[in-house]
Amino acid sequence: MRKLLLLLSVAALIPSLANPRPAHGEEPSSRWPAFLGVGGALPDSADKLPLTWQPDQNIAWQTPITGYGQSSPIVWGDQIFVTSVDGAKKETWLTTSYDLETGEQRWQMQLANSSPVDNSLYVSRAAPTPVVDAERVIVQFESGDCVAYSHGGKELWKRALGTDYGPFVPEFGLGASPCQTEEHFFVLLEQDGPSCLVALDKATGETAWKADRTARQSWSSPAVVMAEGQPHIVVSSGGSVDGYHPQTGEVLWTFDDVGGNTATTPIDQGDGRFLIAASAGRQGENAAAAKKSNALMHIRRNDRGDGWTVDRAWVAEDASPSWGSPIIHQGLAYWVNRVGVVYCYDAESGENVYTKRTESSCWATPVGIGDRLYIFGKEGMTTVLKAGREFEVLAENKLWKPGDIENTPLSPADQSSEERRRGAAMFSGPTLYGVALAGSDIIIRVGNRLFCIREPM
Description:
- This protein is mainly beta.
- It has helices at 2-5, 161-165, 287-290, 418-426; strands at 31-32, 59-64, 74-76, 79-86, 92-99, 105-112, 131-132, 137-140, 145-149, 155-160, 179-180, 184-189, 195-201, 207-213, 223-227, 230-237, 240-244, 251-255, 273-276, 295-301, 308-315, 327-329, 332-336, 341-346, 352-357, 367-369, 372-376, 381-386, 393-398, 432-438, 441-446, 449-453.
- Strands 1-3-4-5-6 form a 5-stranded antiparallel sheet, with no helix packed on it. The protein has a 4-stranded antiparallel sheet with strand order 2-32-31-30, with no helix packed on it. It has a 4-stranded antiparallel sheet with strand order 7-8-9-10.
- The chain is globular.
């Protein structure tokens, strides 16, 4: 169950300079083009986003999603793109476009799963978040099936990476979301068997390069981090943090004095800096390594100027995160764990500023904008904190009432033993998986439903 839960890390905030820009340099009205919002067009003020909402207040629209999915929504212009899976054996992958203003479905495309397995609460279900740019939306599923569509829903190309580089048979499915640069789409395929990082050409789907990785169980996603004008594809997972050249797949640097880093994703914090996070594990097996693995990392040119090095700037020894990635906002670094404890540190010195608990059972990555920090809870409670060195709750917002959203029926696989039945029942209720900012709107994805939160005109 612990490993299953590690699949559920979701949305955050911090744009990366290496991510693709719109055609002709024009900004779409709204842009949240990838997992963690990387490259997103953000409101220039927190005041443009809703501060408070309830089930009968500031919910502009909500719409059901066919099937079920754990991926985050992405946004380009006036379209929201969401993935899901349907069928007892996860036979059908679905990609759906919704109108940002009204929530109405624009189009839906289906793709046959090349490697069907039981549709179970114990296995990832449409977990990877897609990416979108000015030309296309590219989707990867945990089977290794990848497909690119035009913004109008026309299929451009598809790949079955499980055929080329699999089969993929991790016990709980693949959970890593891809990242992108102007030219390439980067897919991390990690399991107990042969694993790799693959770069695909975004225009054709052809493999640009493949970098083999040691077998490991991990659900963290690759990320683009800029250092001195050079993009690095950074992977923090299962005992190492590695940087790859985006054009060649060459390993530029490796840091292996870490452990327990199996769930969260690095986010570019500027100037070659990024945070990593780790947890002790269900049985405390990674406790010693995890204490030094919640840290600020810094990529630099080496002393000779002909290569790269990475070091640990400081360590947040008291942090105990779960699945949400840590972020830096207004000079403060934040880790939030699954029971809602917020660990706040000075981003320059690593000094602990405060440790406080909220009412949100937090699985998602927090979003910081302006004077606010939004903490999105698993069960629909969002706590909004005042950004800064003092802990202050500005609002506590509930998205749905008990009974508003139906529970997910348990599959035969979920009921194959009493242990599995009890465990699955704990997570059959509505679960908040992902968030996107779209202009002045907040888009929230539950497994089988999409919400738009908006202040009335």
